[in-house]
Amino acid sequence: MSSHLIVECLECGHQTQFHPRTYTCPKCDSPWREARYDYETIANGLTRKLATRPFDLWRYSELLPLRKSGEHIILGEGGTPLIPAVNLGMMLGCHNLFIKDERHAPTRSFKDRQAAITISALKEADITEAVIASTGNVAISYSAYAARAGIKLWVFLTSLVPAAKMREVALYGSQVIKVTGSYDQAKKIAAEFARQRNLYLDQGAKSILCIESMKTISFELAEQLTELLGPPQDAGSLGRTAWRSPDWYIQSVSGGMGPLGVLKGFEELQKMGMIQQVPKIAAIQTEGCAPMVHAWKLNQDSAMPIQSPRTLIATLATGDPGKTYTLLRQKMQAASGGIMESVTDEEAFRAMHFLAKMEGVSMEPAAGVAFAGLIKLVRAGVIKSQDVVVINCSGHTMPIERNILGESWSRDLIVPSQAMEDSGIEEGLLAALSKVAIDRFPRIAIVDDHPDVRRLIRRILQAQGNYTLFEAENGREAIELARKEHPDLIILDLMMPEMDGFSVLDALKSSSETADIPVIVVTAKELTTAEKERLKGHIQSLMQKGDFMSDELLDEVRALLR
Ligand SMILES: *Cc1c(COP(=O)(O)O)cnc(C)c1O
Ligand SMILES: [Zn+2]
Could you read off the pLDDT of 101-118 as tens digits, one per residue? Predict the structure, then answer.
């Protein structure tokens, strides 16, 4: 069909034309094949052409397996923002963290790239009925695009998929078949159903269309990083337009299609001389379903399937990754390396809650897995502070799952009936409202010469508690503030110009008015033994900037205010 690409068998090298309904190599029957383009020709003048195109998924049409642009099913896919994670970066001591915010996709997950390309290709090939199995998001994405394209979709969902997601699939008019069993079982049943009726079956990571769609993430990242950080330093050697690639691409992984496609995208950019190196991949799985991570850590080239995944995160419940693992591992090793790592559901929930509080980014638990992985890898020293890191925020959470927020996320507002009768509804409400929060909050002074650090600490405190906060930007102000406001706690930086934290402490401790105020020192400095000795007995706690996460600081604060 499309003449600008050929399909090459990864087993035997046999080459064919591309057609969506050809699933395997006609020569050796292998399902593992890859699209190849004429990279030399495409690279010529590509950036000039791109300059005039909108920033969406279709701008890379030369490198996509579609021909007729009139058949594209468009809902606003691709072109998602890349946003610096400044607060998270400060807390981890990493200053080049970027969130690829796939929540902006039409159905709020990065599966929309896959759905846009696949459903458009089906329309181009006059295919009017299709079958998929899904852990949730693929079903939602495909259903939306299929609705638009007039394609009938049979969706096989594992019964673990949250009911709200199932209803959304049904809303788009797809036929939902709920399979009481694992995702891998649902996949097998879907395949059998498609075979019996001779219907198109989405092949996931084995599908040329799906892998090709994921490449658009790489292309966008290279363009966006170049815009944000400027071209790479020794761009001269690249000859062509020099784009930037990140040092790391982090994604939560179920079947592994995302990283496989992203790697292919970067490989193509490298073939075209547009980037210097393919990034390292960090593929993060949830501990209750981490067949790839187990195999990776044992240095095995095939993964043992997990029969019954034990995770609350249904999106990531692929127990049997099949050969996708083998391919992904090969590709990661052939490129700059990378890592597969797992995190617990709890770590993912915590990361998810943390990103919402600290960056204003609310995501679904599956995406939280990637962020929990980031935190783990930074702490383990695998990801270095200067590395340029992109984390795929792969999907939005709707609705918020209850077990993430705990019990105390809301306050009950009960209007006393007596007050209402006496003074009218409004006053009764106001009176009740005053009971929602106590009058006097604990008072905390934040002393730091960097406004960003003061803002970060303020945010950490405000996101989880009610405090009256004061700020001072130098030692002199800090002492005045302590005398005037007499805070319940001081959070003090050591390294400040003119009057440093040590002198502030000396001054506070030498006055009876301020000597009893507890002090937490937060410092970026490696302290000498003499300096530690000097602080001893004068402070309640010492925290290192860059490696404290909000919970630790908050725990200290709460303990001291008790
Ligand atoms: C599908 C999905 C993943 C996992 O993607 P794969 O690359 O297929 O392993 C992660 N997060 C979300 C939100 C998803 O929908
Ligand atoms: Zn073959």
Answer: 999 999 999 999 999 999
